[in-house]
Amino acid sequence: MKTRIVIVGGVAGGATAAARARRISEDADITVVERGPYVSYANCGLPYFISRDIEKRSALLLQTPEGFDARYGVRVLLETEAVEIDRPGKKLLVRGKDGELSLDYDKLILAQGGNPITPSMPGADAPYVFKLWTVPDMDRMHAFIEKEQPRSAVVVGGGFIGLEMAEALKKRGLATTVVELLPTVMATMDPEFGHQIASVLEENGVKVLTGAKVESVVDRTVVLGDGRRLPADLVLFSVGVRPELTLARRAGLEIGPTGGLLVDDRLRTTDPDIYAAGDMLEIAHKVSGRRVRVPLAGPANRQGRIAASNALGLDMRYQGALGTSAVKIFEATAAATGLSEHSAREAGFAVGVAVIYKGHHAGYYPGAEELSLKLVYDKKTARLLGAQAFGRAGVDKRIDVLATGLAGKLTLHDLAELDLAYAPPYSTANDPINLAAFIGQNDISGFSPLVTAAELKAELAKPEPPLVLDVRTLGEYEASHLAGVVHIPVDDLRFESERLPKNRRILVHCRSGFRAHLAVRMLKQQGFADVANVTGGHLSMVAEGGFNWETS
After folding, report:
1. How far apart are CA 500 and CA 531, in angstroms?
2. 26 phi and psi angles, rounded to 5 deg
3. pLDDT value for 1
4. Residue 12 confidence (pLDDT)
């Protein structure tokens, strides 16, 4: 008999599962049940249609029911909601335009994704208030902009979609403000990257308000908790996503501690005949091993492929996700993989951090753009735990290399020896990845110990703070320096080190870290025992924020 596969949900996980199932078995009977009007579309591309970077709406529609039938022999039921699972009888009750229908299955795959969180507050249902999750959401917003010609916009939420939409709305000519409840935008990254992202938004005319709560939307005005009122002809809420678990809960499938559907490493739920894929899941993080939710398109597609394979008798394991991601902010890119510094500390690792600011290719070749790269590692084992980067070029390349390093459980020592492609238009002889690994090695060995900008700030707040040594040039120092700092340019340090006390902790910084590294080595060899380099230097301190700066 033919194996009957019913898939609930299309788009990333479900559509991939259907195509994979057919490639495995020409005999399988495959049905996709999709609540919306489209079975497969590029939901990650929706903001770029609003910005008009993508001009053709049809480019986002990847497959139609007719196309699925013609190419894969898959039956697609659109605008049809899955209502109830009869687990003992292996039946799925669905409700569509023609009423209710019962579908028999041998294996069921749930790929229902998630739903954007819509705050319950006054004015949240106004006609100029939007979310952006589906093609109809996009169509409604685009039509509103075209017809109403709004002049101002407020984006509530500073995550992926919020940042992409802030750029899109600014490109459409709207005076745009991003309002984020947390202290920084892109809170999945460490705070210094949120500050860098906010700076680029501000440079491009987007106002950023962090630590701000929206209380209501009234008469085309967003009212904040502190009483501020923001003009808003258009409001977009992008404050998070909840996994769609209504059907799974009704069926008695187990939900995990993070609030996602629980599955094993074969993507089976607690019912062995029901598999799942996509944003609704709770999975294992590849580095920490902790249960997490990773609502990203890449993992959803791979999960759909594995779920379909196992539903049809193969034996494939899902090893978890790293959360590798990137976001474009005007001409800049922010990207991350693995654990942030914050999440690594939460997971109990002995965390080390190395930060580098370096041109994305050779400085003498035209067009070099400065790249900030942060490695997070375990100081006990030198194992790479995660990485984050920001810049105008070369960001995605480095993060993809480091994601591969995480998958291979590489250490700083491995990264230091990576043989990466080099030519002046593409990199430096020692790639920024190599250089950041060198810095981490020096930290672990004690050759040149590191502290982060955040750790410096914490130490300065102690009753007996360290001495901070600024080894930049006089011009750099006079332009901006930390209050109370001792200034000795690195080239003078050999001859002026007697000005420094040997019985006090000394933290050294320059602009980005290299000159401070030279200074640390000089001081250590002159008998200064407790000395460390502020990794990332002045640039990291500015990105971190909260320091007391002076000018001369």
Report:
1. 11
2. -75, -15
3. 75
4. 86
* Cα 166 to Cα 177: distance, rounded to the nearest angstrom: 7
* pLDDT score of 300: 95
Among 208, 207, 235, CA closest to 219: 235
Question: pLDDT tens across 288-298, in order?
Answer: 999 999 989 99
Residues of the chain with pLDDT under 70: none
Across the strands, what pairs with 29? 4
**DSSP H stretches of helix in 149-284:** 160-171, 191-203, 246-250
Three-state SS at 491: helix
Q: How many CB atoms lie within 10 A of CB 136?
A: 11
Predicted structure pTM score: 0.94
Give the span between the Cα atoms of 544 and 538, in whole angstroms: 10
User: In one letter, which amino acid is 189?
Assistant: M
* Whole-Å CA distances, 485 to 99, 230, 505: 75, 40, 13
* Closest C-alpha to 327, from 421, 278, 395: 395
Nearest to 109 by CA among 243, 248, 2: 248
- What are the two backbone dihedrals, phi and then psi, of residue 301, each rounded to the nearest 5 degrees? -65, -45
Q: Which residues are catalytic?
A: 44
Nearest 5 degrees, angle CA 315-CA 317-CA 318?
Answer: 145
Nearest residue to 319 (alpha-carbon basis) of 351, 341, 296, 287: 287
CB 38 within 8 A of CB 61: yes
H helix and E strand count, the chain: 17, 35
Helix, strand, coil percentages (3-state) for the chain, rounded to 5, are 30, 30, 40
